[in-house]
From TrEMBL:
GO terms for molecular function: phosphoribosylanthranilate isomerase activity. Its EC number is 5.3.1.24. It catalyses: N-(5-phospho-beta-D-ribosyl)anthranilate = 1-(2-carboxyphenylamino)-1-deoxy-D-ribulose 5-phosphate. Residues 5-208 form the N-(5'phosphoribosyl) anthranilate isomerase (PRAI) domain. SUPFAM superfamilies: Ribulose-phoshate binding barrel. It comes from the Bacteria. It is an enzyme of class 5 (isomerase). Belongs to the TrpF family. CDD domains: PRAI. The gene is trpF. Gene3D superfamilies: Aldolase class I. Keywords: Amino-acid biosynthesis, Aromatic amino acid biosynthesis, Isomerase, Tryptophan biosynthesis. It comes from Rhodoplanes azumiensis. Pathway: Amino-acid biosynthesis; L-tryptophan biosynthesis; L-tryptophan from chorismate: step 3/5. This is N-(5'-phosphoribosyl)anthranilate isomerase.
Length: 225
């Protein structure tokens, strides 16, 4: 099974090209104004155009209402929606039904109890993305370069469609994959020079390290999507 690699928070054409050239599978675009990676819809539309057909386009939002989601779909025509806020399982199901697109739901993890929500979300989402739970005073719920204890995922059903994120970078992704055998990984801060400024060399290093690790420690049975 091939590892699925997502590079998130792309803000420039150069970052999109670097992501394609590095051999990643998915490109994430953040539509959330408090984020340093926020792209407005006009900019997002221009950025995704050259990615179409070369990468799966993921539109990331946080507790977006229907009007914003409709606008995002109209502008970006994403292959996936990533819901990274406090969306309930009912809201995830409603978004998926309304928009007819695959939905990835992010869950913040800090302790084993945070995984109790997985079955309810797995019943409605197409993939569950595990990120570190943000601190109470965080200005955004993700993209913080913060990792969690990957061993907390030990008890998960290996057949679940999941994605590992949170504080990954070229130096730790191999260890994260060795421990979790995740079928997919996602990175934002770990391939940047500064928040919102992607480093093409780090994107290459991340993809190379992740692919090498996956070749020696294949992912568990989770579907690749
Ligand atoms: O990237 C952001 O700014 C962001 C804002 C709001 C919600 C999620 C965000 N990013 C996602 O967070 C995780 C972890 O990112 P990092 O690698 O630790 O920086 C990842 O899924 C990003 O897509």
């Amino acid at each position: 099974m091939t590892l699925l690699i997502k590079i998130c928070g792309l803000t420039t054409p150069a970052a999109v090209e670097a992501t394609v050239a590095a051999g990643a599978d998915m490109a994430g675009f953040v539509v959330f104004p408090p984020s340093p990676r926020h792209v407005d819809l006009a900019r997002g539309r221009a950025l995704v155009a050259p990615a179409k057909g070369r990468l799966q386009v993921v539109a990331l939002t946080v507790d977006a209402d229907d009007a914003l989601l409709d606008d995002i779909v109209a502008a970006l025509d994403p292959d996936w929606l990533q819901l990274h806020g406090k969306e309930t399982p009912e809201r995830v199901a409603a978004v998926k039904a309304r928009l007819g697109r695959p939905v990835m739901k992010a869950l913040g993890i800090a302790e084993a109890a945070d995984l109790a929500a997985v079955p309810a979300y797995a019943a409605v989402a197409d993939r569950i993305l595990f990120d570190a739970r943000p601190p109470e005073d965080a200005t955004r719920p993700g993209g913080l370069g913060r990792a969690f204890d990957w061993r907390l995922l030990d008890s998960l059903d290996p057949g679940l469609a999941t994605m590992l994120s949170g504080g990954l970078d070229p130096t730790n992704v191999a260890e994260a994959l060795r421990i979790t055998r995740a079928p997919a990984v996602d990175v934002s801060s770990g391939v940047e020079r500064a928040p919102g400024d992607k480093d093409p060399d780090k994107i290459v290093d991340f993809v190379r390290a992740a692919r090498a690790a996956a070749a020696t420690a294949p992912a568990a049975a989770g579907p690749r999507a």
